[in-house]
Amino acid sequence: MPADIKAQADALLAAPERPAVDPTQLEAEFLARLTLPSVNASHDSIASLADLPAAIARYLKAQNEALTLCCPPDPRLDACDWSAFTLHDSAAPDEAATLAIARRGIAETGSLILETSPTAPMLPNFLTLHHIVLLAAQDIAAHLEDAPLPGPQPRAHYWITGVSGTTDIEGTYVRGAHGPRFLHVILLRD
Questions:
Q1: Residue-wise over 68-77: b if at least 16 C-beta within 10 A, else e?
Q2: In whole angstroms, what is the distance from residue 20 CA to residue 105 CA?
Q3: Which residues partner with 122 through β-bridges?
Q4: Cα distance between residue 146 and residue 104, in whole Å
Q5: Strands 111-115, 182-188: parallel, antiparallel or unpaired by DSSP?
Q6: Which are the contacts of 26, defined by CB distance < 8 A and separation ≥ 6?
Q7: Confidence tier at 176 by pLDDT (50, 70, 90)
Q8: What percent of the chain has pLDDT over 90?
Q9: Cα separation of 187 and 136, whole Å?
């Protein structure tokens, strides 16, 4: 192998290429990537968990959807006032909206990491039209390699980077082909 090619290969292996992410601007970097056409998500922010029902109601009303929500049986959500909603914890195949809580957000890609548990069922997140995801701002990591969290791991993690989509043979993009058509992230700044 010629010396110049070997030097280039060694340089690539020494410092893997990653998108630049400003560690002091993780929230802004993450939100900017959410709005890219490749991710195609909307977002809102709240100051405290008590503001979550109002943020979801704003979103659903803007989408002309009823205040009906498939809500995970997560005890963190018990303190919220859900009196304006019709809630249920299992999703029908034509479910309009589902709430999930992300374990991490990745600024590099605008990805969300969710996990399964008795309080975080996976199936509702794939049956819904509108996937609403709560993410704590403090849980945004810069790069994919920063995603792992210490402690016990769930049976499964799943990563979401935007809504599902496909392109048909004529090149027409179809959003929501294999899951939700809309992704809305609510950033918790508390």
A1: ebbbbebeeb
A2: 16
A3: none
A4: 10
A5: unpaired
A6: 107, 140, 141, 142
A7: low
A8: 53
A9: 6
Burial of 112 (C-beta count, 10 Å sphere; 0-12/13-18/19+): buried
CB 97 within 8 A of CB 72: no
* Rounded mean pLDDT, 78-95: 90
Confidence of residue 133 (pLDDT cuts 50, 70, 90): very high
pLDDT of residue 109: 92
Determine if residue 151 is left, alpha or beta; phi over 0 gives left, psi from -120 to 50 gives alpha, anything else beta. Answer: left
Kindly give, in sequence order, each residue whose CB lies less than 8 Å from that of residue 100, ignoring residues fewer than 6 positions away.
Answer: 72, 114, 120, 124, 125, 131, 132, 133, 134
* Owner of token pair 């995801």: 133
pTM over 0.90: no
b/e map 18-35, b = 16+ CB within 10 Å: eeebeeeebbebbbebbe
- Type of residue found at 98: T
User: Which is nearest to 52 in space by CA: 124, 112, 140, 134?
Assistant: 134
Q: Has residue 26 got a pLDDT over 70?
A: yes
Give which of 31, 85, 25, 30 is closest to 55, Cα–Cα: 85
Least confident of 27-36, 107-116, 155-164: 155-164
